[in-house]
């Protein structure tokens, strides 16, 4: 063997050995879901929030700067992600259960289990209990805490929950479902709340999984920063009153269609929050944003502990970590809170992938949540089920700047439960520069309205330019690309 060939063999030897080990030992999967987490993190450019552990994960992995959920609501987003199917295929748009509406669906976790993976799950992975029971069975671990109602620990909040439930019955003829204040900050340890205790359980489980001969798929679903914004006092104390900047655009966009109107009833249903269309005070806006930030920092600390547990048990060298927030959220932008619209803020999501041995990077490629299922399968060396409607983004791990999808699609129905014939579907396509939405009557296919935002000149979406005749040709192109929610097929074929 000449010296050049010998040098090449020596150079490649560690990688060849690693490749052989990878074949013998499939990678573990640490699957981290975070409820209502938008890209309000240091690694996404926010300089106010404290998220050191997620920022560190981003520095070690691949950060997707332009990832999008399929629908800005918990239930439908998670059903789409876990099934690998788009909302139009599932016909799940709001509160439906995957198991009840699409029984027998081969979900992501089941596919890994069928291929020899040990499954462990806790917290919010799916939205409905029946999905957790059917998908995970005995491998799902409930977290029992002293929380009252929707996750309260303080005595004051517990009393309000009881009183507010009576108000609900008297004024709305229905129970308050455990709602109380929109936030609280008791001086308690992290594991007094659900997410801290769940992290303790997951870390303990890692110490057992390390001794198994089989790989594991661990799904850990954090409930915060979902409402109510409850977190231990020390996380609220991380932020001073003058440190949190209110939304810079607390007003409705110009020229936008009526389908973007939204009264954010999810937040208004909590105690002490103005009802109907009543405006929020500046003080309330600041307090709510403070609560959201505190909840994010609390979750950041729990994820930091979980990742430390992974490393302490010697599992990080062969574990793929993927973290995602199920949809975006508005923090007073457009004079709105919560999700439930086709604004970019509602559909843009954080997603970070760490693959052992990968080069840390950021990518501007457009990716979608339906891409997670095929991507994890490819990374683990599993065969891809035939039903999947996403595109594996594994090539981006090797080349983050690789030319990728021309657009990402999201779906949102303006529902009328009393008259399904009046349901209007909002189909949106996000491209590198534009965000274009068509509002179509589902029963007839009639196009009712269009919205177009230019993110190069208007990144905050303060003005729709759909009514400008100069954009007619552009909108026709985007309409063809969108194809009433079916354009993903041509877009995917283009990537292939």
Task: Summarize the topology.
Blueprint: H1 3-24, E1 28-34, H2 52-60, E2 62-64, E3 67-68, H3 74-83, H4 87-90, H5 98-101, H6 108-114, E4 118-123, H7 129-136, E5 140-141, H8 155-172, E6 183-184, H9 194-209, E7 216-222, E8 229-230, H10 233-236, H11 265-268, H12 282-312, E9 319-325, E10 330-331, E11 337-338, H13 344-347, E12 348-349, E13 351-354, E14 361-363, E15 367-368, H14 372-380, H15 394-398, E16 408-414, E17 424-430, E18 434-441, E19 447-454, H16 472-482, H17 488-495
Parallel strand pairs: 1-7, 1-9, 2-14, 3-15, 4-5, 4-7, 6-8
Antiparallel strand pairs: 2-13, 3-12, 9-13, 10-11, 16-17, 17-18, 18-19
Helix pairs in contact: 9-12
Can you tell me about this structure?
With 496 residues, this protein is α/β, with parallel strands linked by helices. It has a domain at 30-150 and 185-399: Alkaline Phosphatase, subunit A (3-Layer(aba) Sandwich). The protein has 17 helices and 19 strands. It has helices spanning 3-24, 52-60, 74-83, 87-90, 98-101, 108-114, 129-136, 155-172, 194-209, 233-236, 265-268, 282-312, 344-347, 372-380, 394-398, 472-482, 488-495; strands at 28-34, 62-64, 67-68, 118-123, 140-141, 183-184, 216-222, 229-230, 319-325, 330-331, 337-338, 348-349, 351-354, 361-363, 367-368, 408-414, 424-430, 434-441, 447-454. The strands form 5 sheets. Strands 5-4-7-1-9-13-2-14 form an 8-stranded mixed β-sheet, sandwiched between helices. Helix 9 packs parallel to helix 12 (282-312). The protein is globular and about 65 Å long. It starts with a helix and ends with a helix. The relative contact order is 0.16.
């Amino acid at each position: 063997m000449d010296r050049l060939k010998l040098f090449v063999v020596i150079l490649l030897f560690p990688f060849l050995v690693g490749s052989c080990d990878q074949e013998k030992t499939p990678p573990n999967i640490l699957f981290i879901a975070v409820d209502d987490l938008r890209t309000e993190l240091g690694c996404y450019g926010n300089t106010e929030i404290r998220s050191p552990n997620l920022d560190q994960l981003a520095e070690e992995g691949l950060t997707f700067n332009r990832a999008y959920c399929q629908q800005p609501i918990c239930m439908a987003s998670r059903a789409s992600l876990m099934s690998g199917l788009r909302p139009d295929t599932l016909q799940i748009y709001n509160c439906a259960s995957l198991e009840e509406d699409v029984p027998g669906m081969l979900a992501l976790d089941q596919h890994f289990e069928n291929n020899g993976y040990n499954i462990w799950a806790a917290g919010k992975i799916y939205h409905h209990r029946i999905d957790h029971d059917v998908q995970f069975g005995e491998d799902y671990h409930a977290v029992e805490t002293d929380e009252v109602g929707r996750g309260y620990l303080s005595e004051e909040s517990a009393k309000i929950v009881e009183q507010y439930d009576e108000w609900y019955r008297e004024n709305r003829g229905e129970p308050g479902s455990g709602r109380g204040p929109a936030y609280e900050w008791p001086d308690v340890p992290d594991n007094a709340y659900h997410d801290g205790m769940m992290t303790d359980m997951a870390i303990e489980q890692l110490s057992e999984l390390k001794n198994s001969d089989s790989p594991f798929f661990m799904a850990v679903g954090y409930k915060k920063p979902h409402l109510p914004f409850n977190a231990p006092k020390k996380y609220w104390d991380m932020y001073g009153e003058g440190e949190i900047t209110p939304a810079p655009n607390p007003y409705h966009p110009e020229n936008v269609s009526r389908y973007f109107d939204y009264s954010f009833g999810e937040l208004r249903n909590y105690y002490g929050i103005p009802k109907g269309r009543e405006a929020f005070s500046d003080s309330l806006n600041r307090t709510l944003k403070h609560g959201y930030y505190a909840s994010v920092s609390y979750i950041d600390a729990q994820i930091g502990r979980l990742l430390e547990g992974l490393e302490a048990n010697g599992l990080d060298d062969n574990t793929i970590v993927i973290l995602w927030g199920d949809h975006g959220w508005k923090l007073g932008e457009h004079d709105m809170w919560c999700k439930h619209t086709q604004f970019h803020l509602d559909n843009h999501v954080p997603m970070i992938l760490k693959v052992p041995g990968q080069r840390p990077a950021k990518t501007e490629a457009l990716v979608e949540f339906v891409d997670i299922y095929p991507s994890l399968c490819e990374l683990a060396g599993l065969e891809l089920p035939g039903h999947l409607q996403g595109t594996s983004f594994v090539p981006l791990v090797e080349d983050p700047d690789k030319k990728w999808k021309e657009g990402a699609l999201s779906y949102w129905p303006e529902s009328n439960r009393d008259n399904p014939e009046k349901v209007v579907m909002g189909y949106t396509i996000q491209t590198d520069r534009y965000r274009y939405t068509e509002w179509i009557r589902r029963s007839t296919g009639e196009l009712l309205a269009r919205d177009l935002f230019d993110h190069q000149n208007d990144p905050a979406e303060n003005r729709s330019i759909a009514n400008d005749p100069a954009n007619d040709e552009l909108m026709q192109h985007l309409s063809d690309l969108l194809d009433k929610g079916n354009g993903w097929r041509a877009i995917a074929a283009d990537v292939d």
